[in-house]
Amino acid sequence: CQVIVHDVNELTEKLFPIVEAMQKHFSAGSGxxxxxxxxFLSVAxxxxxxxxxxxxxxxxxxLKYKTNVRDLFDEFDxxxxxxxxGIAREMQPVYRHTFxxxxxxxxxxxxxxxxxxxxxxxxSGVLLLNLEAMRQSKLYNQLLEPTMVQKLTEKYHFKGHLxxxxxxxxxxxxxxxxxxxxxxxxxxxxxxxxxxxxxxxVFDQYFQCEGEVKIYxxxxxxxxxxx
Length: 227
Fold this sequence. Notes:
alpha/beta, four-stranded mixed β-sheet, 10 helices
């Protein structure tokens, strides 16, 4: 087993020019936790990692594994043609909230609606990055350009604060074909913040997850069930 340690400052230095434009749209504000460009690492990982690395799994620290993470690597084989990233849906109505203006102007949209037919957005706690596909996708790399980011944020009236997750969510509204949607059991989020903040009536439509959980995600400091 080979372990390679990367210097955070070096990575941030490489990242900053690539993600600077999107930080103003998807950060909580200057000097805050998510405004650091390292929280956009996944977005440009294909530019940062050596060319010989073709696939990578990026995960949050607040996870508990109920199965071998090697099984997650098998999901790369399920990517449809054109997909570059594997990611699970967001399990709270956070993007129902964030896209409120777009939803008001487009009352029949799927944007922000719950699964299975809606587009609830993504949660970046578990990410499968097909670096080779990301490098080769003309569409994906066009979407990283500041003018495209600006165009989409204006179209969707989008202002977020969750870093890479916001970028993937917004891009997924426009180009869902870039993503392989992981089953909720690969990123079973436990946070229920939005249930108590105005969305109790629809919360369970987003939060439900059938099947045996493979990875628990204790987001917003939620305790993870003991075995």
